[in-house]
User: Fold this.
Amino acid sequence: MSRKIKRIALLTGGGDCPGLNAVIRAVTRAAILQYGYEVFGYRFGYKGLYNNDIIPLTLETVSGILHKGGTILYSSNKDNLFNYLIEENGSMVKRDVSDVAIENMRKEGIDALVVIGGDGTLTSARDFYRKGVNVIGVPKTIDNDLAATDVTFGFNTAIDVATDALDRLHTTAESHHRIMILEVMGRNAGWIALESGIAGSADVILIPEIPYDINKVVEKIRERESHGRLFSIIVVAEGAKSINGDIVISKIVEDSPDPIRLGGIANKLELELEKVIKEHEIRSTVLGHVQRGGNTCTYDRILSTRYGVRAVELIDEGKFGSMVSLKGDTISYEPLENVIGKTKDVDPDGELVSIAKKIGISFGD
Ligand code: F6P
Assistant:
């Protein structure tokens, strides 16, 4: 056991994700019970590190949070301390304020920092490590699009919610003989649409990795009609695009490291289909942040707990500058330097797409 580490701190950055609280709980409990560390949390992600907004985390503080979505430490998806908006001589300017954060940690006696976040948050974690901070990263995102780990926590909760939404759309689609479109999140990766589509028995799955031809989607609906199936269910990833189209952007969030917010493809698809399909009503539903809220599923509670405990073990082993990851059945770790910016898309020729096609699901290609 490392003798030098006495106090550790955690922060959560980027969009919230089911399982954040489970990681906070696991880190805190393992750090206190196994290693006798004192544990603290910075509130509102890196902003809290800059403002020294720090609170103690104890066995009591983390009690009763395992199942809850969100983060008791709050989060921010805008604050990059290496390019941070501050007021200087009456005007707002961007400055590298990372030294202020490092000085805050030094004053509080923080020996190691556990950063829980997606690619943007982990990029800053890597940059703090380069400046000598003892950092351990934990990968978070419902999108499951980080190359360095087989599964990110939050993904399984999101697909459970999306699958439940598809089940619910089925019963109403069937009653009215409607074409129902469900838009799910996932940014530029189609994992949520693909896995919820298979589990929720969608007829059509549209994902960014396979540009769709609207005529092929119509063909699938017509084929179902010829078998007496007078309703159809389409799940579309927010980042999907047609063979002649672009991604659909819902808004630009200024100051966010990744300012583009996708959204609106379901409505576009509805309008495209309405031009050709006159016999059925076509309705779209955007699942939105519902897939990130509420309770964390069993799988994510366990994965988050495994990640959290391993993060503390890595602190004890002095393996700083690493990120915990899942490889097969094993919790492992990777250097942050190797993982930043590396995404994992759905393979159009991979097993999941292939089995979906073999059971008759159309990808509009
Ligand atoms: O990365 C997670 C995610 O939920 C994406 O699936 C989605 O595109 C984005 O975040 C939404 O971000 P925000 O919470 O800023 O709307």
